[in-house]
TrEMBL record:
Organism ancestry: unclassified sequences, metagenomes, ecological metagenomes
Major localization listed first in the record, in broad terms: periplasm
Annotated family: Belongs to the bacterial solute-binding protein SsuA/TauA family.
Intracellular or extracellular location(s): Periplasm
Protein name in UniProt: Putative aliphatic sulfonates-binding protein
Amino acid sequence: MIKKFLIILTTLTLVISLAGCGTKANTPSTAKEKTKVSLALLRLTSSAPLFIAMEKGYFAEENIDISPEWFDAAQPIAVATASGKVDVGATGITASLYNMAAAGQKIAIVADKGREEKGFSSSALLVTKPLYDSGVNSVPAIKGKRIGITQKGSTFHYMLGRILEVNGLSLNDVELVPLGKLSAIMAALQSGQIDGCILNEPNITKVETAGYGKTVVQIGELIPYQTSGLFFSSSFTQKQDLAVRFMRAYVKACNYYYDNAIRNTSPEKKAEIIKIISKYTNAPENDVKLGLPYIDRNGELLTSDIKTQIYWYRDHDMLKGNLQTEQIVNTTFLEKALKK
């Protein structure tokens, strides 16, 4: 009787064991599930590394499922990131962002997403073609003119102020016209409601191709400027492993962009990059190829310029409080990503 019981027990144990093995073989329980990360961004050429990372699967390689959320101006992205409505923001570095940080909101600028450099088309001052043809083709010549920007305290406001000052003028020498959206600026320039504006790629090339605006000067020809950055929300910075994985994918995309779009290592890969940017910006490929901006190969920030921006906004009464660069810049995630 005991012998018979032992035989039955052994048989049942073997069956259960085999069933368990079968379950492990057929269920991908050991595979990591992708973590969803919300990303707020604009359809601008300077977002190229993000487009590349999404399109070529670099985020997926790091088990990240990107959920893109599209905006039409920089400030709402900063607000969404600071409030934690999105995990990551990618846009211009504005007075609004600095004021949120100065007020105690936890938001971190973690990497480059585009800067003004000599020889690269990223942001520019444009005027209507009739004005340009009549001789308004320099910064001093826009004195007294109506200049469109997105909003006060924006990157456009900053760029206009800085290039005026470089030329011995000030913001008081022009009439600022805040129009909120990029599309509204372009429409106002086309209709003649404004005399000039600040724009970025691919919109500069769109305007010039359409024939109603002309570039007066590229911003990078006059000032070094960390125009845009990647921002992490406070809650996202607490997810150390995820944040570093995100950054690792981003750096890989920056490498790919720099090597092929900036250094022209491979014409085929450059053509691929142009196609990707065209897909995400809804701009014709011919427009994209004429305005590829400078982006650091490793996504490293021009930190010295962040300090310059903070002082400028404070001096122009657009920043309250005693914000220091180290309160808003956090490069530790990038540094860790570069080590792996």
